[in-house]
Amino acid sequence: MCGRFTRIVPLESIVIRFTILNQVDEKDYKSSYNIAPGQNINAIINDGRRNRFGQLRWGLVPSWAKDPKIGNKLINARAETIADKPSFRDAFLKRRCLIPADSFYEWKHDDENKKMKTPMRFQLKSGELFALAGIWESWKAPDGHKIFSCAIITTEANELMAPIHNRMPVMLRKEDEKFWLDPSNHDLEALSQLLIPYSSENMEAYQVSEDVNSVKNDGPNLIKKVRRDNENHIKHD
Predict the structure, then answer these.
(1) 97 among known catalytic residues
(2) Is 106 a catalytic residue?
């Protein structure tokens, strides 16, 4: 699954990297070391003419939903079933998005103490931005207000991720982003072929502070490398 990630680069870096052509309000962007479900997160869609940057609530609310709280359960969509699940299939066909990130977190379970979880940070070895594959929806409440929401697509784990968790977010290759965003592209078979594990060779992972466990915490200390000595004491590098 994917339940937490970071995006700490300046807004300008995202505008350049993803060729954003609409006017972006600085107020719509905030870097974060601890992005969590339920928050408004930045995403990129294509309106048929250009890439647009905006905000979507993390937790998909299907257009037919009676209660927007369903979004709390729909933060991820499995690549293997996204084309069939009623909650996701229409968005997969018509409303796909990119979610800029520079790393994501996952928790490693201790084999001896199942309650003990070690937070790990996963990123590209280059430290570059990448795009998580997402889908988005528009939901209209009875009083007329709208909620624009999204879900991050997950796939099976690659070799780096497998010892930590059996799932990982889909990290699209840069050359596939345009194809993914194109709203006129309804080739579900070709789109599904993009939803594969990212190459382990280009990624790295390391342990980080348990402070990341709380969504209330946000700051550069969350991505610092930590290690344990022989007496199991945590040390920051």
Answers:
(1) no
(2) yes
